[in-house]
Design a protein that fits this description.
Blueprint lengths: L4 E2 L1 E5 L15 H9 L4 E8 L5 E3 L16 H6 L5 H7 L5 E6 L14 H12 L5 E5 L3 H6 L10 E5 L6 H10 L4 E5 L13 E4 L6 E7 L2 H10 L3 E5 L3 H10 L3 E4 L2 H10 L4 E2 L2
Parallel strand pairs: 2-3, 2-12, 3-5, 5-6, 6-7, 7-8, 8-11, 11-12
Antiparallel strand pairs: 1-13, 3-4, 9-10
Length: about 280
């Protein structure tokens, strides 16, 4: 079991994307603010530097436009971009960490030991047993690589992340057939308009229009099938009202930008529940 409290509140890039409360996303202060606010987990974006250090930054380029993979960790630190090791050292051990692994095209050709996949495995080896970890990626080769013998220390969970234009039904099937532990769905693919509503048009993008008239299962049905397949489901970036509907539908975790707002909304429906 990954998420002990259902739904677990996961701080997206720390205290939220952007700089809520003055805490820049993927910074030490942002992760500590999320912990102080009571988030059970935080999500962070890890990518490699030119000298093979995993640093935390969502985009492939720095604010100044330089490619992250082309800069050293020291150069990135001068721009306020911190390392994964630094955050893990600072974050209270009771807070779980979802590492969203951002691969780069150089991972297709560089020496295997330098590829993002191998660097993540090395960090996990150093920190295994110190806290709960979920390693997830839009790149399915990352959890596939880590699932191979000897590359996943301890009970670290693996997940697949999918975008708003990737149908939730396909995501659940993919994660299950890859033998993963979790699937991380964009909230737009579990359109709140179809929660408790039965079949509805399948949306692509943020609550977009149906494509080719395809029918879409309700969010409850998708979550039920995911659970039957042995997957836990994290939904990312729902607004507070949508978070409540997703919690009722059975989401295991909510990766959010407004931690206090989501907590207040969940408290209004009776709060979180013990593990189901």
């Amino acid at each position: 079991m990954i998420f002990g409290e259902r739904p677990s509140v996961v701080g997206h890039r720390g205290f939220g994307a952007g700089a809520p409360g003055g805490h820049r996303e993927n910074s030490v202060s942002s992760f500590l603010a999320a912990a102080r606010a009571g988030a059970q987990w935080v999500e962070l974006d890890a990518r490699r530097s030119s000298d093979d250090v995993l640093v935390l930054w969502h985009d492939p380029v720095t604010p100044g436009g330089a490619r992250i993979v082309g800069c050293s960790a020291a150069e990135l630190a001068a721009e306020g971009i911190v390392s994964l090791d630094d955050v893990l050292a600072a974050l209270p051990v009771g807070v779980g960490v979802d590492i969203d692994v951002k691969t780069t095209i150089e991972d297709a050709v560089d020496s295997p030991r330098r590829r993002t996949h191998a660097l993540v495995a090395a960090v996990l080896g150093r920190h295994a047993g110190t806290r709960q970890f979920l390693v997830s990626s839009f790149d399915a080769s990352v959890p596939s690589y880590l699932s191979q013998d000897g590359r996943r220390p301890g009970d670290i969970a693996l997940g697949l992340i999918t975008e708003a234009n990737f149908a939730a039904s396909h995501a659940v099937s993919a994660a299950a057939n890859l033998g993963l532990d979790a699937v991380c769905l964009n909230s737009g693919t579990l359109n709140s308009g179809t929660l408790s509503a039965g079949p509805a048009p399948e949306s692509f993008g943020d609550h977009g229009a149906a494509r080719d008239g395809a029918a879409r299962d309700s969010a409850e049905h998708i979550l039920e099938i995911a659970h039957r397949a042995g997957l836990e489901v994290m939904v990312w970036s729902p607004e507070p009202a949508e978070a409540v509907a997703l919690a009722r539908a059975g989401a295991d975790a909510l990766c959010v930008n407004d931690i206090p707002g989501v907590q207040a909304a969940l408290a209004g429906r009776g709060g979180t529940d013990p593990a189901r």
